[in-house]
């Protein structure tokens, strides 16, 4: 029996990607990319996407960067409201879901193949139904715990990028005070995100009395790869915060099924995580240090994982 036809859409800050899917499989050859600045909303995008096909979907799932409540989401960086009712009217689909983008990543992780992820820490074998945890380090910072219950996947929403910055050293305390003076109450996202990487570098310039123009993240990363000492110091601080944050969140969720690092920023750091101290920071939990070795850590390379997550979510809904 053929799985019902579905449409899945991933709305980012700049572009939206749309594709057809059947079951948990995204039909990769159907993916179309739309520049958000050229569109008035998701309904216009869906109408255009479907105009090239005689088929109509039975289900639609849209994920977006922003909070979602009762089937309605508000984009963080766009003046778009994403509403399940409006999507159903536009597409004629009987089943419609609107997810936060982190929830979509959470639904995806059980369906990623080996080529879509790289091992960071080995962990220990666990039951396939064990809890997983997605940690996103990109433009922003957040986590998504992924639970399995009676054959269903449950991905709970969170805004965990805005918790207090965890500091342990005198240098980190000075960094926290510097961020507070310039940007208000310092949260972990203020140092663990694309702009956070830039802020750590700017702080180290301030510490050195260097008032040179600020560098953007790509320039700092290039300097690090060329062996620049200050950029290397920046990268070490950044990865230390990343490991500590992932370890803290792991102790809350107990993801014996694995921690999955996603996001454009963490992918840039992928080849360097271990030599920059990720493992040590992740396990730096005092007497619970040995306990942390149970959690495998993976780096997700699949840029289309959110679309897979939307398809997986719909497959579960349609199966009930």
Q: Any chance you could write out the topology, listing elements then pairs?
A:
Elements: E1 5-11, E2 15-22, E3 25-26, E4 32-35, H1 42-51, E5 59-64, E6 68-69, E7 72-74, E8 81-83, H2 84-91, E9 95-100, H3 101-108, E10 117-121, E11 132-137, E12 141-149, E13 152-155, H4 170-183, H5 194-207, H6 217-225, H7 229-253, E14 259-262, H8 264-269, H9 278-283, E15 297-300, H10 305-319
Parallel strand pairs: 1-5, 5-9, 11-14, 14-15
Antiparallel strand pairs: 1-2, 2-3, 2-4, 6-7, 7-8, 10-15, 11-12, 12-13
Helix pairs in contact: 1-2, 3-10, 5-7, 6-7
Q: How does this model look, in words?
A:
By secondary structure, the protein is an alpha/beta fold. It folds into two domains: 5-112 and 302-319, ATPase, nucleotide binding domain (Nucleotidyltransferase, domain 5), CATH 3.30.420.40; 160-300, Hexokinase, domain 1, CATH 3.40.367.20. The protein contains ten helices and 15 strands. The protein has helices spanning 42-51, 84-91, 101-108, 170-183, 194-207, 217-225, 229-253, 264-269, 278-283, 305-319, and strands at residues 5-11, 15-22, 25-26, 32-35, 59-64, 68-69, 72-74, 81-83, 95-100, 117-121, 132-137, 141-149, 152-155, 259-262, 297-300. A hairpin with a 3-residue loop joins β1 (5-11) and β2 (15-22). The mean pLDDT is 94.
